[in-house]
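At this stage, I put together one protein's amino acid sequence and its C-alpha cells, which the following lines show:
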Amino acid sequence: MIDTDDVSVGNCLLGISLPKIWAFDYADGNFPCDTAGIMIKGFAAEADSVFYIMGGNPIVVAKYNGTEMIARRNLGLNLNGSYEALFLLRGDSLYFIDEQANVIYALHKGLQGALAPFSLPMEAEDSITVGEMGQDAYFLMTQKKSPKDYNPVKFTMWSFTYPNHIQKKVLGEGSCESLLPGYCKLRDVEVCFSYAGLIGDYRIFLNHTLLRDSLRNLPPLGAVSGYEEHYGALASDNLNLVANDRVYLTGFNRETHKFSVLEYRIQEKRKQLYSRN
C-alpha cells in the first residue's frame, strides 16, 4: 500500500498496522461461494467487523458479525459470468451488478425485503469488461459484442449515479479506477499497483505480489472472482477495498478450506514520518 504523494515504492509497506484477520470455513456448506473453485462474487465491509459476502450458484448473500453468520439469503440468480465482482454497501443498501444482463440490483443490508433490479441504459450488444464502484457514482467500461471474425477495439466509458442514471458517456479506451475520487497517475515503475481509494488525505494503492512476498506470515491473498476459458482463474480488484478508513484484503487457502479477511489500519503516528518539509 502506498501513497504516491508521501512515500516511495521502497517504503510502501511502512505506516500500516499488523492486520486483524478473520478466517471462515468455506467448505462448511453455508459459506456463500462455489466450493469447487471458491468463487466470490462480492465483498463489502461495514463498521464494527460486519461483513457481506456474495457467491455461489444460485447466488447467496450472507451477513457476518466477525465470523458469525447473522443473516443469509438465496437470491436465485446466476452470476457466474460476472467476473468483476461489482458489489457495494451504500447507506442502508447493497448494490451489485449482473455483468451479463447489464442490470444493477439493490437489496436492503438486512437482507430482507424486495430485491430491486434496475436495467442499465445500454444497448444489448454492450458488454461490461471492467468496473469500479464508488459511494457517489460507479464506473463501467464496455466493449461492443462482435461477430466471431470481427473484433473491433472500441470501448465506452460510463459513469452512473445510483441506481442507474447516466452521468457521463465517453467513447474510447480508458481506466475506470482513474475516475474514482482522489486518483492520481502513478509513475511508470508503479503500473503494477491498482488504486483502491482514500483514507483521509492518503491515496491507497495495492500490489498483491509485493504484499505476499513481503509479509511472510500472512494467509494466501487473492480471492477468485471467476474462471474464464482463455485466462483461467480471475481475481478482481473489487474483492479488496478501502472502507471505514481501513483497508480490507481477501484470500483463501485450498488446504485448510479457509477464506480470510485481513483488515489494515494506517497508523497515525507513522504518517508524520512521511511528511516532506
Notes: Residues 208-214 form the longest helix (7 residues). Confidence is low (pLDDT under 50) at residues 1-14, 269-277. Residues 17 and 142 are 38 Å apart (CA to CA). DSSP finds two helices and 20 strands in the chain.
